[in-house]
Amino acid sequence: MKTVTGPGVVFRSEAPRLLLAVTLAAIAGWVDAVGYLHFAHLFVSFMSGNSTIFGVEVGGGNWTAAITPVLAIAAFVFGSFLGTLTAAVTGRWRMPAILALEAVLLALALALPRSSGVLAPPLVPIAVAMGAQNAALQHVGRISVSLTYVTGALVKLGQSLAEAILGRSGRWTWSLYAVMWLGLTLGAIGGAVAYKRIDYDGALMAPAIVLASLSLSATLWILVAGRSRNQAAKRTFR
User: Fold this and answer.
1) Which pTM value belongs to this model?
2) Segment holding 96, helix H or strand E
3) Can you list the domains of the chain with their CATH numbers?
4) Which of 6, 11, 125, 190 could form a disulfide with 173 if both were Cys (CB 3.0 to 4.6 A apart)?
């Protein structure tokens, strides 16, 4: 059966990674929606938005209000730093390690005093978790993906559509970016509905449980894959 490819993307062989990438994007959208509604319209994964909010508050002379977006940005950057270090230290265990780290950080946010003020304690671990998530999976095939924001994906979507029409790239490369955008958007819808119909705790607990489950699944996958390789090596040298 013929495999449909884009430049570096083999959609069938990369299906598990693509599914995981979309799932993580959906989690980011979910958590961002919960944060946006709970922390007075502040983002926990969309730092371009927070940078704009910071600029607006500074421009308006609202120095106290400008503290919160800066805090979120700093926490997100630290999360990216922490996630990258975790990936480097854990090697092939990077995926379960980073997903477990995220789950723990979201659980920590739930354990902190429930506040939505200027210096809300839960904001920091949530933003750190979102920053760390980007180190969990950075490529599907040879195409780079972002797991907590989709501005770049939308730019790539438009560019790859133009390149497909011009015959410069695969006809379906654009679909990967479209699916990533759709995943994050659907996640945001789910997070908003959960926040309004359940509450903050329940809405944030759901992605924490999913991340913990994904971490466990990734651990088992690595263990099974390692055992299969060892058995194949033993048969080779018999």
Assistant:
1) 0.85
2) helix 94-111
3) 5-236 (1.20.1250)
4) 6
